Amino acid sequence: MTIQWFPGHMTKARRQIQEKLKLIDVVIELIDARLPLSSRNPMIDEILQEKPRMIVMNKADLADPEVTKQWVEYFKKEGVTAFPIDAYSGYGVKDIPNQAKLLLKEKIDRQIAKGMNPRAIRALIVGIPNVGKSTLINRLAGRNIAATGDRPGVTKGQQWIKVGSEMELLDTPGILWPKFEDQNVGYRLAVTGAIKEEILNVEDVAFFAVKYLSQYYWPQMAERFDLQKRPQDFENPDEIVEVMEAIGRKRGCIMSGGRIDLEKASLIFLRELRAGKLGRISIEAPY
Ligand code: G4P
């Protein structure tokens, strides 16, 4: 579900998260492992301030494992704990309470030294729409809690969900807006389906993806669509369109007169890419 973000929405979303921050000890910032920076909120540091935080890279099942490793290193250099998970299958999800404990270790140790019994760590999940917040909440809770596609502005009573004996999670996630200033960010989000095609032209989105994959994942492209001719100059649009046409031909997207139906070819290509048919692909790399 795509949310239309207006300045008023952003202010409201930000205020809602800042209210929730008062209740919690640690933030779980959920991003998409395939496009880590593009799936972050541009003002996240300012919004979270000094609150302890971990970056959780979801949908790692769809991302290129080598590139994911590079991203983990990238965030480590930035001084932030980041690790991949797959909220769908549950891979890596157990690390979340463990990392929360590590992040709060000093505070917990101080409480113990004073003879206090530390209470459960309180956590909040934040992230842009479609990144998998509801799926992760349900996975951590071990049951169906949040309605997928939660929208800002829809308020309901907040509740704490127990995650084991040492962590509690707010049942409503913080929803943030993605970056808008860079057109490539929009394309990357659209490639994954986080932004619907009606917002950006489907052929433009497919063009962006075909160009990126021809550059970095040619063997997978060639095998899936029986492609013979790799573009020589990736900045030459004609060569990218030739690849799109070859994909269309392979998938039978032919119009009367033998012309290739590029729109149909684009839709099919994006559908197969999102479904993981081309293998594990990342569309943003740190270096
Ligand atoms: P949100 O609350 O952040 O908006 O996201 P939500 O949990 O609704 O997840 C958005 C989509 O991403 C859902 O797919 C969900 O199944 C999928 N998803 C979440 N986590 C993962 C993951 O780790 N790996 C993969 N491959 N997919 C994940 P959908 O198409 O909207 O719904 P459905 O296919 O589950 O019916």
TrEMBL record:
<dbReference type="InterPro" id="IPR027417">
    <property type="entry name" value="P-loop_NTPase"/>
</dbReference>
<comment type="similarity">
    <text>Belongs to the TRAFAC class YlqF/YawG GTPase family. MTG1 subfamily.</text>
</comment>
<keyword id="KW-0342">GTP-binding</keyword>
<comment type="function">
    <text>Required for a late step of 50S ribosomal subunit assembly. Has GTPase activity.</text>
</comment>
<dbReference type="InterPro" id="IPR016478">
    <property type="entry name" value="GTPase_MTG1"/>
</dbReference>
<keyword id="KW-0963">Cytoplasm</keyword>
<dbReference type="InterPro" id="IPR019991">
    <property type="entry name" value="GTP-bd_ribosome_bgen"/>
</dbReference>
<dbReference type="InterPro" id="IPR030378">
    <property type="entry name" value="G_CP_dom"/>
</dbReference>
<keyword id="KW-0547">Nucleotide-binding</keyword>
<protein>
    <recommendedName>
        <fullName>Ribosome biogenesis GTPase A</fullName>
    </recommendedName>
</protein>
<dbReference type="InterPro" id="IPR006073">
    <property type="entry name" value="GTP-bd"/>
</dbReference>
<feature type="domain" description="CP-type G">
    <location>
        <begin position="14"/>
        <end position="178"/>
    </location>
</feature>
<dbReference type="Pfam" id="PF01926">
    <property type="entry name" value="MMR_HSR1"/>
</dbReference>
<dbReference type="InterPro" id="IPR023179">
    <property type="entry name" value="GTP-bd_ortho_bundle_sf"/>
</dbReference>
